[in-house]
Amino acid sequence: MARTAGRWARRGLRWAGWTAAYVSGLVALVLAGAWVWWQPEPVSRGTVVNALWARHQWVGEAHTEEEYRALGRLLKENRITDVFFHAGPFEADGTVPPSKYRYARALIQAMRRHAPGVRAQAYLGQIRKIDGHGITDLDDPAVRQRVLRTDALMLDQGFDGIHYDFEPIYTGDTAFLELMDRTRELTRSRGKVLSVAIEQLTLVDGAQPLYKALIPQGHRRVHYPPRPTADYLRALADRADQVAIMTYDASLPTRSLAGWHFAWHTERTLRLIGDRTTVFMGIPTYRPLFDWAEGLEVALRGVRRGVDALDRPPKRPFGVGIYAEWTSIPAEWALYRATWLPGGPG
């Protein structure tokens, strides 16, 4: 019996070794293939339709004229067309206390002086309440109505549009689509724009039912990845003037894999909705704690590779959305101008 047990143990160890070697070989092939793919320099240049997420202090605190002037120079030099100024977040009931945006009018007036033509949008959002988790319950019609009233108050301040960032938003969220419909009626009646930030696409739409099956019923909508399917992304695009894809936080181990991530999502997103609405591919000017491979240089190169893969340019404008104003340093702005804006050295 001892010899039989020993034979089975040795066989088990051999199988484990072979399996580990096989998996290691596959990983090596993937990494090598990604590295080879990553080497050619992108051909496509960037665009002059680009967005920037900006910190709350611009609407919540007083600023000097020189600070406003410097902001205007930054936006014009880097050809930013849309700024999402954080003006929230929403309270649980769908309101935003006026104290949080007390300097919004001063900001808008300064933008008119120092960055005319740049759209200043009110960046509003919250953790979406789902299955008892989260803060703002968009399934409640009364909450949605108060969100719309808050949007109207923001437009009264002079903002050029509303930028939603509710998270998480799952495919099939009809309450959010209804809020988008109502908000579009409001913004269009005022001659303003509606934009929305949404997570990157699913890699495989059919995987969503698998996530639902594997994760316990009570927590499935809280824990499985809130990635939109192609159909849901199209539904959002049909309701928004602009869609910003939060492509960052890829958490991939190498620069080539992170670059492939940005390229794949750029190509697929522009194919799906580039003819329907303006698209901003979100890129980071920060380094996530556990994601050393991701950064501005990799993201911009990846987006350009994604544009290279298209058969033709989208019918609607597209560009990048920089996250974020408060983490961007002069060297990153210089890199952005050199590698993304048309006319840069490439």
Short description:
The relative contact order is 0.13. The protein has an eight-stranded parallel barrel with strand order 1-2-3-4-5-6-7-8, surrounded by five helices.
Question: Can you describe what's shown?
Answer:
The protein is α/β, with parallel strands linked by helices and 346 residues long. It has two domains: 1-39; 47-339, TIM Barrel. The protein has twelve helices and eight strands. It has helices at residues 2-38, 57-60, 65-77, 104-114, 141-156, 174-189, 207-214, 220-223, 230-237, 255-273, 296-308, 330-339, and strands spanning 50-54, 80-86, 119-127, 161-167, 193-199, 242-246, 278-284, 318-323. Helix 1 (2-38) packs across helix 10, helix 3 packs across helix 4 (104-114) and helix 5 (141-156) packs parallel to helix 6. The model is unreliable at 217-223 (pLDDT under 50).
Keywords:
346 residues, alpha/beta, 8 strands, globular, 46% helix
Number of domains: 2
Distance between the termini: 70 Å
Mean pLDDT: 89
Q: What's the level 1 CATH class of the largest domain? A: Alpha Beta
Helix count, per DSSP?
12
Q: In percent terms, what proportion of residues is strand?
A: 15-25%
CATH architecture of the largest domain: Alpha-Beta Barrel
* CATH homologous superfamily (4th level) name of the largest domain: Glycosidases
How would a crystallographer describe the biggest sheet?
8 strands, parallel, barrel
Count of DSSP strands: 8
Strand order of the largest sheet: 1-2-3-4-5-6-7-8
Order of helices and strands: HEHHEHEHEHEHHHEHEHEH
Ranges where pLDDT stays below 50 over 5 or more residues in a row are: 217-223
Q: What does the radius of gyration come to?
A: 23 Å
Helix content: 40-55%
CATH topology-level name of the largest domain: TIM Barrel
| Oligomerization status of the protein chains | single chain
Structural class: alpha/beta
Shape: globular
